[in-house]
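Q: Sequence in, structure out?
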Amino acid sequence: MGQSEISEDYSILIPKEVREKFNVEPGDVLKWTIEDDIINVSFHKVIYLGDIIARAKNKD
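A: Exactly. Output:
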């Protein structure tokens, strides 16, 4: 699904295929877990209360 190179400041670029498949956007959170010698990365959406309220108001 792609690969990333670690920069000198330890930043990585998430491959386009991954961003599109998981709808990754700026502000989303990456969660890193380690199981034995395997690193797992998962994406978590950050949802702000103000956004939820605005969406609820727009539905009316």
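Strands lie at 29-35, 38-44.
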